[in-house]
Amino acid sequence: MVQELPQRTGFGGPALIRLLVRLTDTDVQASRQPLSRQLSQWLDWSDAIGLSTVLNGPPPAVQAGGLGDDPAREAATEYDQLRDKLEKAILGQDASPATRRQRVYRRSVIAADGKPAAPIEYPAFRQRYVSLQERMETSISNLRIRLRAVLAARSPTMARLALVDAAMEQALGGREQRLLLKVPALLESHFEHLRDAATDAQHGGEGRDATSTAPVPWQDVFRRDMQRVLLAELDIRLKPIEGLIAALRTC
Predict the structure, then answer these.
(1) Which superkingdom does the taxonomy of this entry point to (predicted)?
(2) Is the pTM of this model over 0.85?
């Protein structure tokens, strides 16, 4: 039976980083630099000029926009619905075509004519992960744009905050996406570790045959670990939305 890795200690930070450190057995040291210094390393001179213009320019005009009686509550409801939808997609509980294809594929490789089937190769998991990343990026970005429009219709101060959020997304979004796109590659080492451990156990520790037909409980372990990583990534991606909703509640 494949055992899940024990929790690593001694490193604090976002849940996504802690999970990746534990699953990939990577030695990561927490940065001692203040957050402002770390952010400055992500911004180039054009980003700095754009942010300075937004922060030091005249107050922007309040934009007209259709608002309900309680925009903060409406935004929070939309946030909850989006989060629930994305969590269900990650856990394979939605009815999207991609999830249905994944279920059919999983059944076809796990239970074929009553015999143990060959394990799923990692590219299938990578494709699933990248597909969910794209879904998160699109839906969260759309909500973020809508919330900025709501803020811009509240007051000059909130309109400036909406411009700052847009400038920060433009300045940091590309770097963030490039880093998050590396996560599937990092998970491949965890996949290989679980596969090799299961193969060793199957053959009594003597030699490895990664292509052999074998039961795949270790892939269930990996699938759960991948879901935890995706949920942790979702938490990070949703932080700007949570910040905009918090700002709306102060209006």
Answers:
(1) Bacteria
(2) no
